[in-house]
């Protein structure tokens, strides 16, 4: 009998930025450097940790669940050891919705970390985060829950 596989997910929901977060974002975007204009060095693009509109999977939670059901390959080592739990993957969603630099920040082993990274790498482009209606780069952490049911 083949075990029933269940993969759950949850997005880390962010509330609307508070006044303190807005002030911090404004302070971060103002470099305050005294380099004369015209000779300013190329600055690294700003990556936000929260946005007025957070990035999201195209189609929302239901589409994300459908994507996971269709693409998941539960590792045999995880099944053999009865391993289950959350793998936290962090990445940046850029202004076009591309997923950049995914990495496991909290893993489980038994091949589940690699499977979570594979799933993130093959996801379609996301809807980008926005501040003031403009798309921005936003850091995001996605917990992917693996659970094998016998």
TrEMBL record:
Domain of life: Bacteria
Principal location: membrane
Subcellular location: Cell inner membrane
Gene3D superfamilies per UniProt: 3.30.1150.10
Domain TonB C-terminal: 59-150
Membrane topology label: Single-pass membrane protein
Alphabetically ordered keywords of this record: Cell inner membrane, Cell membrane, Membrane, Protein transport, Signal, Transmembrane, Transmembrane helix, Transport
Residues annotated as signal peptide: 1-19
InterPro entries: TonB-dependent_transducer, TonB/TolA_C, TonB_C
PROSITE patterns registered for this protein in UniProt: TONB_CTD
Family the entry assigns: Belongs to the TonB family.
Name under which the protein is recorded: Energy transducer TonB
Originating organism: Hymenobacter lucidus
Taxonomy of the source species: Bacteria, Pseudomonadati, Bacteroidota, Cytophagia, Cytophagales
């Amino acid at each position: 009998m083949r075990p029933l596989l269940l993969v759950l997910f949850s997005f880390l929901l962010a509330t609307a930025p508070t006044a303190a977060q807005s002030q911090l974002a404004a302070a971060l975007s103002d470099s305050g450097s005294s380099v004369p204009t015209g000779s300013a060095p190329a600055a690294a693009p700003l990556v936000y940790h929260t946005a007025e509109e957070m990035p999201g999977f195209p189609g929302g939670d239901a589409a994300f669940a459908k994507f996971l059901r269709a693409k998941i390959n539960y590792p045999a080592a995880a099944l053999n050891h009865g391993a289950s739990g959350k793998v936290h993957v962090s990445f940046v969603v850029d202004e076009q919705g591309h997923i950049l630099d995914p990495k496991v920040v909290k893993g489980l082993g038994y091949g589940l970390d690699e499977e979570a990274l594979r799933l993130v790498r093959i996801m379609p482009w996301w809807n980008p985060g926005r501040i003031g209606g403009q798309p921005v780069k936003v850091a995001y952490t996605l917990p992917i829950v693996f659970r094998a049911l016998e």
